[in-house]
Write a structure and sequence with these properties.
19 helices, four-stranded mixed sheet, alpha+beta, single chain, Cytochrome p450, two-stranded antiparallel ribbon, binds protoporphyrin IX containing FE
């Protein structure tokens, strides 16, 4: 009798589960038939924290593994944020070029809100205010990037002399390279300076950038699970202190510059920002789209935030690849010698005549995946991607690492700059445009021209004057440390003068 009762309760349970499963299937099928859309698939996560514990140290690579199982568009949960990951060259390019506005906001993370209350450029909502802000930033960047050649050449020469001063000892080039790219963006903003490397504000900026990167990286726990701040109080406190200090020193600098501002004698990007804000009639009170003069004055923070670490990281990768691939290095040096001859100095206009050097820069950006997940986006409306619905307010990451490592590259894990050249040795535009290191669409990097000029001039000048090699017994690791950027693990190179 007892056995019968337990059998019937098992049958009842099975019935309940069958009805439940059937109901879910009916619901999904009806939903699909009604509008042809579905929620994106995705892995199972834990209650409250979602998938945070499953991402490991390297989120971009874990996202790539999920992609193999769930496809180019899948969902997961990062703490309190429903999240969608979009991967693969074709899908990322299609979505960011055809549906860019639907993904053009940034999520209202705590750390982003702390930076200018989301009224700056990089960490802001997407609205008319943002569009005007971006227009002003692009105007200033365009105008002042073209004035940077001489400063870049000086910084390139400084790298060469610092490298050669190592007198044949193996050394890590990171510090020298970071100071050079930092100095370039500093002079871009505040004008030509002699003793940048002794400027307290400048040094502090370089020092604190690491902490900033940790806070701005994908799935920073204090952003996606705000209550975890109690476990990371020191980190959050340091971040707040750094942002406040940077804002304070920026305000002081702006005050000084405003006092000597002369529209007939424009000196640097800050002058450009002031003059553009006058041209657009910006005041302390918000204008018709909600933009204020103070909002626009925060632009130097965006230029620093985006303007030196990505570039120095790319250069560090380039030097590492040159030490590992001496044949590629020698090919670039031959190209440089052929183009500049006895001139001894590299100009930006030489770039067109140096396709192999350019190809090497593209290949390095592709393979190293410098900004693996870009910056986080947020859906501005309900939107369909590959027949999956992505709800307004969803946190969205575009996996740039996956774009550079797509099977369509043929041998995505090989370092082969020639892949960007046609049989006549010319750069193939459709190939270089597939790298997407600067992203595309509304939020694409506005500093691309400055960055590409800088990468070319610094890299080509170093190879024009130096030979780079790998110290004996040194084993290079090409995996990179995951943060907001993939930076190479600490490594040493050996540099000697090319004349020797
Ligand atoms: C190799 C160098 C660089 C790389 C790989 C790079 C890459 C990127 C990427 C992937 C984004 C995010 C795009 C998105 O959200 O979809 C971005 C945004 C941004 N970058 Fe760059 N960047 C570089 C250099 C620079 C430089 C030199 C500057 C400035 C002066 C700069 C300023 C910015 C700004 C302000 C944003 C935010 C744009 C916005 O949200 O509207 N970047 N960059």
């Amino acid at each position: 009798m007892e056995k019968l009762t337990s059998t019937s309760s098992v049958v009842q349970m099975v019935d309940i589960w069958s009805i439940f499963a059937l109901a879910i299937i009916v619901l999904l099928v009806t939903k699909y038939l009604m509008n042809g859309t579905l929620s994106p698939p995705g892995p199972w996560g834990l209650p409250f924290i979602g998938h945070l514990l499953f991402l490991g140290k390297d989120h971009a690579k874990q996202f790539q593994r999920y992609r193999e199982e769930f496809g180019d568009v899948y969902q997961l949960r990062l703490g309190v944020w429903p999240t969608v990951i979009i991967s693969g060259y074709h899908t990322v390019k299609k979505v960011l070029s055809e549906q860019s506005d639907s993904f053009a906001a940034r999520p209202a993370f705590n750390s982003f809100k702390f930076i200018n209350k989301m009224r700056g450029l990089t960490f802001s909502y997407f609205d008319q205010r943002y569009l005007l802000h971006r227009k002003i930033a692009s105007t200033v960047l365009k105008e002042y990037s073209s004035r940077m050649e001489e400063i870049m050449q000086e910084e390139a020469n400084r790298i060469v002399s610092d490298f050669l001063n190592e007198n044949g000892r193996p050394f890590n080039p990171n510090k020298v390279v970071t100071e050079a790219t930092g100095s370039i963006i500093y002079q871009f903003c505040y004008g030509k300076g002699e003793n940048i490397r002794e400027d307290k504000d400048f040094l502090e900026l370089l020092e604190n950038h690491k902490n900033f990167k940790e806070m701005a990286k994908a799935a920073n726990p204090t952003d996606v699970l705000p209550w975890t701040q109690i476990f990371f109080q020191e980190k959050v406190r340091k971040f707040h202190k750094f942002i406040r200090k940077a804002q304070h020193s920026r305000a002081e600098k702006f005050q000084d510059i405003l006092e000597t501002f002369d529209p007939k004698h424009m000196r640097h990007a800050v002058d450009g920002i002031i003059s553009t804000s006058i041209r657009y009639g910006l005041e302390d009170e918000p204008n018709e789209v909600g933009l204020t003069k103070q909002d626009v004055f925060t632009l130097t923070g965006d230029f620093f935030g985006g303007g030196f670490d990505n570039t120095s990281t790319t250069l560090c990768w380039l030097l590492l690849y040159m030490a590992e691939y001496p044949v590629v290095q020698a090919t670039i040096q031959r190209e440089i010698d052929n183009v500049i001859g006895q001139k001894g100095i590299i100009l930006l206009e030489d770039r067109e005549k140096m396709p192999f050097t350019e190809a090497t820069i593209f290949e390095t950006m592709r393979l190293s995946g410098v900004v693996p997940l870009g910056l986080p986006h947020c859906a501005t409306e309900d939107v369909l991607v590959n027949r999956y619905i992505i709800k307004k307010g969803t946190l969205v990451f575009f996996n740039h690492y996956s774009v550079g490592h797509d099977k369509e590259w043929g041998d995505p894990f090989e370092f082969r700059p020639e892949r960007f050249l046609d049989s006549g040795g010319k750069l193939m535009r459709e190939k270089t445009e597939s790298v997407l290191a600067f992203s595309i669409g509304r939020r694409r990097c506005p500093g691309e021209t400055l960055a590409r000029n800088e990468l070319f001039l610094l890299f080509a000048t170093v190879l024009c004057k130096c030979d780079i090699s790998k110290p004996e017994h040194e084993n290079y690791d090409f995996e990179g440390n995951f943060s907001l950027t993939y930076s190479p693990k600490p490594y040493n190179i050996y540099v000697c003068s090319k004349e020797n």
